[in-house]
Specification:
- The chain is of the alpha/beta class.
- Helices cover 24% and strands 25% of the residues.
- The chain has a single domain (6-177), classed as P-loop containing nucleotide triphosphate hydrolases (Rossmann fold).
- The protein has helices spanning 27-37, 57-67, 104-108, 112-116, 166-177; strands spanning 6-7, 19-24, 46-50, 82-87, 90-96, 124-128, 142-149, 156-162.
- α1 crosses α2.
- The protein is globular.
- The relative contact order is 0.24.
């Protein structure tokens, strides 16, 4: 994986804890990270996107979807709770739980059904603000934590990718293997 305008103070993948740390210099680098993740996706994967408002969560999803061939506008599902994208033979469900006041709203909205699907009905779940669903949300395969890296709103971003499951670790390994030049 080559992410333009990105740097890393450590190797892309730390095998002992399946964690990657990237410094993304600008929006283009965040889009490129999303694009690099696209080929690692497979049905049933749960990816959480964590970070403050403006950290780049939806931008990363936009890069991912564009790399899969999605040509329409990509917006945050803050008001709709979920945006469904069928692209490249995958069902992608982009969730945003920012507006939840109580974790039970996740169940009340019936969103757990998206995560319980299996076989040909299984999709890739991309979840912004996963903490708002509390313990009802299944364990993610890949956690992506984005933060502003600097004081200026136009500053770059720091991305920490952590894989707490074997499926997530496989994504990080694929991401790392795809790189002919390690991200530095």
């Amino acid at each position: 994986m080559h992410v333009p305008n990105s740097t890393s103070s450590s190797p892309l993948l730390s095998p002992e804890d399946a964690t990657a740390v990237l410094s993304l210099r600008d929006e283009a680098a965040t889009l490129a990270l999303g694009a690099a993740l696209a080929p690692t996706l497979h049905p049933g994967l749960v990816i959480t996107l964590e970070g403050d408002l403006g950290a780049g969560k939806t931008t990363l999803v936009r890069g991912l979807l564009r790399a899969l061939g999605y040509g329409n506008k990509v917006k945050s599902p803050t008001y709709t709770l979920v945006e469904v994208h069928v692209v490249s033979g995958l069902n992608l469900y982009h969730f945003d739980f920012y507006r939840f006041n109580e974790p039970e709203e996740y169940l009340d909205a019936g969103l757990d059904e998206y995560f319980q699907a299996s076989g040909p009905n299984a999709g890739v779940c991309l979840v912004e603000w996963p903490d708002k669903a509390g313990a009802y949300l299944p364990r993610p395969d890949l956690r992506i934590c984005l933060s502003v890296d600097g004081q200026d709103g136009n500053a770059g971003r720091k991305a920490v990718l952590h894989a707490p499951t074997a499926r997530g670790a496989a994504c990080l390994t694929s991401l790392s293997s795809a790189s002919s030049n390690p991200v530095r």
